[in-house]
Amino acid sequence: RIKQAILETMHPDILPLMPTLEEFTNLIELDRQLHELNGFVVFLQTSSLDLSCARKVFDEILSIPPYRDNATFIQYLSSDAAIISNSSFDNAVVKILDLNENLLSESEKTAVTKFLLDNNINDLVDSDDEIELTHVEKLKRRLKKPRLE
């Protein structure tokens, strides 16, 4: 009776635009997936996110069944995605941030070698007394220091 009432009150031009039950079910699932992805997108917009954390978010997305077999997701979110201009550098930075320097491949070592600092520079940077830091730099340092509990 409800279906009949809807059909009687609906303009005839609208009926062909109404989704079938199967289409409606697919739309509900798509809405659920988009809501789930939006949670990841919001998380990726946090200011404290580093490359290692972003890589873990992408890996998590690719571990979820609807996305792990999706060529578009793999094309853009995998660690060897074509949009990454230097995957050796990208992977090296992630390993360094995760304190896994011992796992660096030769190509990853080569990619980050030019960014190595000698010990004298490290000593200078680690000493707050020897250089004047801005308030933002001081805050960034405090946020990076491990907390003892």
Describe the structure.
Helices cover about 60% and strands about 0% of the residues. It is mainly α and about 150 residues long.
With helices defined by DSSP (H or I, 4 residues minimum), what is the helix count? Answer: 9
Q: Which bin fits the share of residues in helices?
A: 55-70%
Low-confidence stretches: 120-126
How much of the residues is beta strand, in percent?
A: under 5%
Q: Give the radius of gyration.
A: 25 Å
Question: What string gives the helices and strands in order?
Answer: HHHHHHHHH
Structural class by sheet pairing and helices? mainly alpha
Keywords:
149 residues; mainly alpha; 0% strand
Question: Can you lay out the helices and strands and say which pair or pack?
Answer:
Layout: H1 2-9, H2 21-44, H3 51-63, H4 65-68, H5 71-77, H6 87-97, H7 106-113, H8 119-126, H9 135-144
Helix pairs in contact: 3-6, 6-7
In brief, what are we looking at here?
The chain has 149 residues and is mainly α. It has helices spanning 2-9, 21-44, 51-63, 65-68, 71-77, 87-97, 106-113, 119-126, 135-144.
